[in-house]
Amino acid sequence: MRDVNNGWILRYTHANVASFFFIFVYAQFYNFYFYLLFSSFKIYVYFFIKRGLNQTAKILISLLYFNKLIMENFLKIFRPSLSNSMNAYKYKKLNKRLKVKWNCEDDFLQWFSGFTDAEGSFKINTKNNKEVHFVFQITLHIEDVAVLYIIREKLGIGIVSITGKTCSFRIHSFQLIVENLLPIFDKYPLLTHKQLNYRDWKKAILLKKIAKENSWSLNVDIFNKIIDIKKNMNDLRTNYDGYTISSDMVSKNWLVGFVEGDGTFYFSNSTAVFGITQKDKQVLEAISCFLKKVKLLPPYKDLVIPKKPNCIIKKNQKAYQLVITDLDVLFQYICPFFRNLSFYSRKSIDFNIWSLGLFLMIYGYYTIPKGKELLLNLSNNMNSKRYFSNVIDFIDIKEIESIFDIDPPFNIHTGKSHFTLAKEYALKKGSRKGFKLYI
Fold it and tell me: In the predicted model, is pLDDT for residue 40 greater than 50?
């Protein structure tokens, strides 16, 4: 390099461009960095072409464009793909690469409160009849470990552990519980019966806190008081006095968190269903009232104007279930409502699959063989079944595009309801009583 005129330029250009390349890679591919990098790379390649490395430069340019095309295609269809969410480190990097914009602090903490209502627990552990330890815990299937790392990252506290097929997020530091966790649930209260467990848990914590502040050891009297509190918490609770819930207490971000824990998006027979299962009937009634206030957000013009969401609350063997099955309501109320909010767990995959199936039903594609086959494929890879499948493996983008290239069997812009369109289509096909599709 030193023996060539201006060789130092080539030397330092090569060294610095290579360094900046990896710097920008680890900067998670923000668009500004990507295009700045790409511009530098083109200058770099042009410089080499001038020096006889034309073939190598062409290969590098082809690879760069090819990778960019794959990324854009991937982001367009699924954003983000959580198919490898078991590896939390990769998931964390993937989210930054896809520029996922987390909500502001208040929105996330509301979501965290809702998710805790569904999946969290407050525990009091004792040892040697004189030691008391407090634990906040969220336990999930190992496939959902990524959301626990997100919670840890957002809160800045806690430990994530994996045992067998389950994973847990725990906070057991007494100081962190007092200084960080209690203020969160005081400001963003729980809405299910779990609020009573939290109040008792907090009461026991304050007993220990007062003892520590006064330099008292945890004497027998305080220890017994905490044991009495523990005996009436969680599954042992029989007293529900002081429980309060109303639709005004429900917020959209709390609801998303709660749905990510206890909600489901699925298909049943010839319809799509949104449901929430919970032992506490009162919270489902409050959610039902809240959903009736959700705004109508039709994705297109000239659609039928459905009535307000009518939630059906029915009792199963051990719990209550809230369900909405009206396709027009799901299409114009529920789907747009959740589409405008942030999911933090793999439930986003279920919601995206469900949304695709909802489109197939609204347009009537489920009445043709290719649409039936796709809908069945989607149904077989949702919710608990998605633990055994990879989204990328069963979603064929070309297959989906080929179906939507076909003229839709239903003309949804006539202002008619889905029920009317389905009945007219059935009569047109020669049916007197209509038809049913079972999945």
Answer: no
